[in-house]
Specification:
43% helix; alpha/beta; 15 helices; 3-stranded antiparallel β-sheet; 375 residues; 2 domains; TIM Barrel
Length: 375
Amino acid sequence: MTDFSFTLLATDGMARRGRIDTSRGDIRTPAFMPVGTAGTVKAMYPEQVRATGADIVLGNTYHLMLRPGAERVAALGGLHRFMDWERPILTDSGGFQVMSLAKLRKLTEKGVTFRSHIDGSAHELTPERSIEIQTLLDSDIVMQLDECIALPAGRAEMERAMELSLRWGERSRAAFGRRPHRALFGIVQGGDDAGLRARSAAGLISIGFDGYAVGGLAVGEPQETMFRVLDEVTPELPAERPRYLMGVGKPDDILGAIARGIDMFDCVHPTRAGRHGHVYSRFGVINLKNARHRDDPRPIDEQSPNENCRRFSRAYLHHLVRSEEILGAMILSQINLAYYQELVAGARDAIAAGTFTDFAAETRAGWARGDLPTL
């Protein structure tokens, strides 16, 4: 079996192109990970997800522990077999969902107790239990349990959550042990405070992780705040380890974060947007609910490498969206995930060529021009 490793292949400014080697295949970075929350990327077959260019998907500890249960998934051969995805899977720790979804939660030094948002049943999630669940799921990349708070927040609250996350990181590391074929990532917290972020990064590095995530962003703060935090924190992280920005984001967020040294991304946005009639393309975002598409025979993009962008008229897609047909969600989710993969693939090529700044500028200019025909 292949040991987990990260190879930095090229840089262009702070932007990085690399490769993560795992026992289930390589992950090309910058990488976008489609979110398979409950063992499925919504409205997509596994082979369709792979065909978009995705090397890895994300599964969610909180949702899978509640339904169908981690022990059940393990008894059925692990998450890869359960969802028929043979390539790498990263599982998040469940902490964010506990804070945002669970009912009647109580946070202590030990962990967090909560009631399921599904049926009200009582559960406890500790750093050790989170690692155990992710091990039962047979995840390739495991995340430490942390506390993620919303921004804006007071410094005292950010410091408290950051210090707790560090202590939980140390416990997560001890519970995980050393597994050459699997990886454990630590999560940098500290809100929008540069000093707290630096302390968090230093503490995690001293514990020692296979990769480092930046958590606690895309939680209500403006984009400029997120970019400022990344400007401050990525230089604090080891260059020889992958860097993962959790829960981000929209295409412009991803371009900006790549420019600031981030290697990995995940977000529910492309599939959620597709289910709500929004499609991403080189023209920017197109709202297919809009009546202007009702009689439009044009495809989304006749020059796209994606067949679905060329195959269906905007009028038909508008009809599917307005009629709430399942096929509309399937087509638009596929288009959006494929566009996200085209975006990171273009970034990888541009970084290798030393032209990332030009690539980002040209991409943003295309979004600004939009898709309206010239009259």
